[in-house]
Amino acid sequence: MFSLKYRYLIILALGFYSYINTYFTDFFNHYQVKASSEALILSFLLIVFFVWELSRLAEQTLKRYFKTQSAVKFLTILFIISLPLTLISAIAVIAIAGVWYSGYQLTEIQTEIKLTLLLAFRINLFLHCINSIVYFFKQLRAKQLEAEELKRAKIQAQLQQIKTQINPHFLFNNLNVLASLIMNKSEEANQFIESFSEVYRYILKNQEKELVSLQDELKVMDLYIFLLKKRFAEAIKFHISFDKHHLENTYIVPATLQILIENAIKHNIASSSKPLIIDIVIENNILMVRNNYQPKKILENSSQIGLKSINQQYKIICGKEITVKNQDDYFEITLPVLKVENYEVFNH
Predict the structure, then answer these.
(1) Any residues with CB less than 8 A from the CB of 310 and at least 6 apart, and which?
(2) How buried is 27 (Cβ within 10 angstroms: 0-12 exposed, 13-18 middle, 19+ buried)?
(3) The CA-based dihedral angle spanning residues 194, 200, 204, 207, taken in that order and rounded to the nearest 10 degrees
(4) Largest CB tally within 10 Å, which of 16, 74, 159, 304?
(5) Pairwise CA distance, residues 142 & 131, whole Å
(6) DSSP readout, 231-260?
(7) Residue 295 DSSP symbol
(8) Could you report the per-residue pLDDT of 46-60, keeping only the tens digit for each?
(9) pTM score > 0.85 for this model?
(10) Burial class for 54, CB neighbours closer than 10 Å (0-12, 13-18, 19+)
(11) Residue pLDDT, tens place only, 251-266
């Protein structure tokens, strides 16, 4: 507190306030103070100035040469050091305002000397009480910021751990399809490689982000659907419905659509006779992914990443969870799309 930028204005205001407060309590008449109003005002201003500035110098010196983690110890030592400095301040005020300015002899102003000492120590106590409050408040705020940073770092680590589990699954499936195309000398191998590299580049570019633009995610989905078509042909069909106006300033967790589609493929039969139909609908700040429910008799081994990872990311980022409906003829997942303010908070 003692090193505040505008401390001299505070010193001036506090000096005048102390004088006015003392004046209206009839303090000067009660003790029959001889000094003029000008001398008294000067005395109060000098007391506050000397006590404040000497405490500031003491605080700076103490911080430089005395290292301690205990705020109580630091403030206690600072206050003890301030006591002789306050005595020096009072002597300086008596010399300037009483002897030099007013022309009194020391023997003539015994009462004024005692009152000056009293006021100097009271003002010193008041300033150090306020300084302690400010000091503890700053420490509390620093600990709160540190806790927020630790929480943020923990969230980042959790999200990164989830994301690093998604990429290998994506790579494995598509490299198998690519190997098949190359072995069959298919002309579509080059197109597949371009689409595959574009999708993977997008994943790598955005893997450090908590949120991505829903418009960008849907553009990449076209390429991703092309990859799936080469993998499943007519065994899988997509119906996508959305209003472009509803996509403005909306964001989503990266790879959400990819994971939801892979989840549907993993747990359902997809064949030309029984195609897997996946509907993707975006409306009213909700993203819905639905597929016809035709579960496999023998399920693939699951690492439990899919829906759990999506749900965990939404809980971490915005405190919301996805909604899952499992009916006799369809399986549906709905999740929120987030507005721009969420993007600014978590990606910046």
Answers:
(1) 253, 256, 259, 260, 322, 335
(2) middle
(3) 140
(4) 159
(5) 16
(6) HHGGGEEEEEEE-GGGGTTEEE-TTHHHHH
(7) B
(8) 888 888 888 888 888
(9) no
(10) buried
(11) 888 878 888 888 888 8
